Amino acid sequence: MDTAAPSVCAEKTVQQIYRKLQERIGPQKFNAWFKHGTRLTIEDGHVKLAVPNPFVANWIESHYQADIAGVSEASTGTKRAVLVTIDPALAGEIRRRELDAQADIVHRTHQGRSRRRSESRPGALRHKLSDFVVGPSNKLAYSAALVMAGQNKPPFNPLFVHGPCGVGKTHLLQGVCNQVSRICRRGRPMTWKYVTAEQFTNEFIQALRAREIAQFRARYRHLDLLAIDDVHFLAAKKATQDEFLHTFNAIESAGKRIVMASDAHPRLVGQLNERLVSRFLSGMVVKVDSPDSATRLSIVARKARRMKLKVARDVLEYVAAHIRGSVRELEGALTKLAALSALESRPVTLELARGVLADHLARTDSAVTLGDIEAAVSAFFGITPADIHSSRRTRTVSVARMVSIFLARRHTRMSYPEIARAMGKNHSSAVLAVKKMTEALKRKGQLKWTGPMGARSMSAVEVLETLAEQFT
Prior knowledge:
Elements: H1 4-25, H2 27-35, E1 39-43, E2 46-51, H3 54-63, H4 65-76, E3 81-86, H5 89-100, H6 102-110, H7 112-120, H8 139-148, E4 159-162, H9 169-180, E5 184-185, E6 188-189, E7 192-196, H10 197-210, H11 213-221, E8 225-229, H12 238-253, E9 257-262, H13 274-281, E10 284-287, H14 293-306, H15 313-322, H16 327-344, H17 350-364, H18 370-381, H19 385-389, H20 395-411, H21 416-423, H22 427-442, E11 446-451, E12 454-459, H23 460-471
Parallel strand pairs: 2-3, 4-9, 4-10, 7-8, 8-9
Antiparallel strand pairs: 1-2, 5-6, 11-12
Helix pairs in contact: 1-2, 1-4, 2-10, 8-9, 10-11, 14-15, 14-16, 15-17, 16-17, 18-20, 20-22, 21-22
């Protein structure tokens, strides 16, 4: 019997999975987390991915487990669970690869100066402050962004903008960068860089692996302005937080500017270094809320003008009145209307708008957010939302966290990874919380915790019914 054939076949399948995964998540992320130091096998009905240490395991489990499962099913035709395991021997393999790359590192170091010059003056970003639609929900954040982007030294530093997804935080950060790019100091343009926290993490890991940490630090610590988006992605990543803390200190001590955005207030970002939190709070922390009806109308009207789409006032008012979520939802609704109008050669009428948006409104009109759930749960259990996001494991906090995750799965469209990331946890913790809560409901079990008035006990069913009344 030819025993080599199955092995060759399995290797081809693994390579196909890796190739499809790279296509799905992009080469930069694939190279940072999978190309070196991971080993994928298919056995016992599972897809097993071995990684060198717990940090990489936690990151891949939190961010890419669903992607691995998807490409595995597409490659093999069978749905399999993905298991992430730790194999310390892979760390030695990484070190050997690094030694083999020394010649390339010397060459890149020689070219580092010219590369840093080009990176310090990146191309213009998509958003500008002049395009930002200002309303009561974002006026303070917009004013603060203008100050950070001005000629004069701002009276506060850093600027930390937080709020739900799709309300314009990224727009503000990119707008500040674009405006600063036009400022010259001592005959040279101000240097700036816009990155997400995930990009910062990926670059940091790549620099460590390639032993280019000095070049990495030079790219960041000599900037006139650093704009970092999605700061909440730094949660529970100790090494990256330490590096960002030193970067933050270097930029701030030089009198340069830092602007940041996050889905949550610094105090509510789970497992965030307290020294980082104190530095974030030392500047201007401002929240951006979802736009009100007048602001939504201005947004869709401006979007229609840019698309050169002829839309009656009543259609714009209908969209603004019924799409009450994020700015992205508003723009997406208008784009959908424009596409259908073009495909069917029909004018954009109120009747068309009602038909096109009917399904969307049925799914989102009374959506409950994770923030609504956390607020209700924390008040019920006598704790704060920050406790739910923290690493504390007291009975009260653990029960509250379990209930929050269960309600998020029941009342929102968020996936397990999305809920886990929002709470600074990992995917497995979210799955386990829902499983425990489901079992408690089936057996009509009691939930026990310690509230402000002492020890308490209530059935799981009663707890859920009581909370549902508060946020629905």
